[in-house]
Amino acid sequence: MSNVGLIIQREFSSRIKKRSFIIMCLLGPLLISLFSVLAIKVSNTYEKQKVLIVDPHEITGLYWNDTHTKWCDFEVQFKNISDAEFNNSDFDVLVYINRKIVENNTVQIFYKDKPNPYSRADIIRQVETRLEGLKLEVTNIDPDSYYKLKQALIVKDKNINGEDVRADQNKSNIGFVFGALIFFFIFNFGVHVMRGVIEEKSNRIVEIMVSTVKPIQLMTGKIIGIGMAALLQFAIWTALTAVILTGIREQVYPDVYAPDKQVAQTAQTSHSDLQGPTHIEVNEMGQLIYEAVNYTGMISFFLFFMIVGYFFYAGIYASIGAAVDNETDGQQYLFPVTLPLILGFVAAYVTATNPDGAIAETFSIIPFTSPIVMMVRLPFVYGSANEWQLYLSMGVLMLSALLMFYLSARVYKKGILMYGKKAGLSQIWRWAVKGN
Amino acid sequence: MTIELRDISKHYSGHQALSNVSMQFSAGKITGLLGPNGAGKTSLIRIINNIIEADKGEILVNGNALDKSFVAKIGYLPEERGLYKKMKVAEQIVYLARLKGLSKQEAKSACDSWLHKLSLDEWRNARIEQLSKGMAQKVQFISTVVHNPDILILDEPFSGFDPVNVRLIKDLILELKAEGKTIILSTHNMNSVEEICDHVYMLNQGKKILDGAVGGIKEDYRPSAYEIQFRGNIIGFTNALWAGYELIERKQIGNENFVAVIKLVDGNTINNLLSTIIPHVQVERVEEILPKMDEIFITALNPEPHE
What we know:
The complex is a heterodimer of chains A (436) and B (307). Chain A has 436 residues and is an alpha/beta fold. Chain A is built from 17 helices and five strands. In chain A, 64% of the residues lie in helices and 7% in strands. The longest helix of chain A has 38 residues, at 165-202. With 307 residues, chain B is an alpha/beta fold. Chain B is built from eleven helices and 14 strands. In chain B, helix 3 packs across helix 4 (104-117) and helix 3 runs parallel beside helix 5 (133-145). The longest helix of chain B has 16 residues, at 163-178. The radius of gyration of chain B is 25 Å and the shape is elongated. The relative contact order of chain B is 0.13. The model of chain B has no long low-confidence stretch (mean pLDDT 87). Classes of the chains: A alpha/beta (436), B alpha/beta (307).
């Protein structure tokens, strides 16, 4: 095994044997799961919505007058309504019953506030139930035969005021969570690198090490070894979180598509029984966590930004460790180096509300902040006309990481053999740029 | 393995650490590298270790230019001891041995042998932070020699050891010398220099100020002084030394029995001295006073008193 390989192995194994690493491996998934469950529970606190059934052809009749569900109060009107009238009314949702609904099995939902998943499911179930009743009356078919023949109800919904802001918000929330994870991993393991270098320097083992390997090999081995520990922790977090969330799914977000659930979530779901459930277990946050996120795609980009972002910052943390004489001195430099990361976190927050704004675009390209900010933008730029910005950001980050690694190695080489004092910023700059 | 340094110079910002230093370290010899703090010893050791580069000059190993493989042949014990405190003893020794090019099996085997030799077998799974200072020093010493290096650079190898372990380490160093290792010993412990070094270099302010075999240097720095024990009248003795001699010290050890230290001046010899005093006293013992290495050290740094 090469010397760098040996150093990587030592750094990796010494990190993963630490009690704090093991605790974090267990605590992280528990906290993420707890956070997810809380988010799902909080997401259950939706308000009841007023639903107007517009049935100008009087197909569904007076069925609606006494229809009140847990999430919806229904009313019917047998004449058309304009957008303006709907906007001025106190109804939240409008369901339009077209003339051929029995044949085309389609309704259109208009809304001012997007129906929450519960009320949406209630609406669909009620319309379906009414349609089923109508069909049974008309055809004289026995219910069992009918449900075998029944086709799925197609629902198209549209916000009459424009785009689906809520869906976008959810997308950016997920991006923000991944960005926050990158912040955590870069900062946490970057500080590990800094402390490791200070430890080697203060206990003087570095003198023995650099008499055996080149400083850049020592630094590279340390950064890769600690980075691998970070990746292992992330893998454990991912696996354990997946296991926990899957394990508790039945309690927090039952799978409405499962064959044994007689539940309608969307119009594509067909009933196997006349008696639909009285309460429909659909939760927007649960749907987001369990179904909507493309984890494969997110994790692929997450890994890229985490690894390259870590390399970009780890070199800086290593050179700080080399430039100071003890951990107290290191703390003084920690803040200025962590500041861009914090700035990235703030920019990520702004980006979550405006993913295509100037701040989002700028900070997702600058390598100091791009690993965090681009994760928030990822759901918006990937597959869009701005996808090139994603690849530009990745390219800039990669090149910057290489440059930063080169400059950091120069500082590290000079700093590790300087004892008894800390290097000033001007000296660090001289080491980095001029090499002396 | 012979290492030859030719005109080595090293400059740091605003400070000349080494100026045209030339030295030779031979196989089977222990060479002392002496000098006060800041003399340039650490810079020189770091240059030999390939940790830093000289601005000028060259290093030859067996007459050939230094190459990368040389580093693996060095065992370096720095003055400021350093080990990974959380690592276990055997784990640490094996790790450092493997970095020096030993296979895992070779490293384990050499580690076991050295742990046994220094009576540390039962501590092999202890963390360094759990060891006493002396034991940690032993581990450090093992880490230096475990890969069977041809060259040993030992910076203050005896510090932190009790007298029993100082003896043990000295014996080990002499054993390694007998095996033909090239040993560079940097120390302020002049007794050790006197005891085990064959050759000595002294640096001061980056320049070599002393170069020679221990015996030769002691010869060069002989103070021409003798300790004489005699019986007789001290006044007559003192009067006899009126010219050409300097009475440094005198002490009465019995009735009309004295010991005096006399320095020869004006080209006088011991024979002249004896001829001068024998008519006045009965000489019982004469012994030449030879310089100790610490006196040579001080004299070399402050050349005025040495004429």
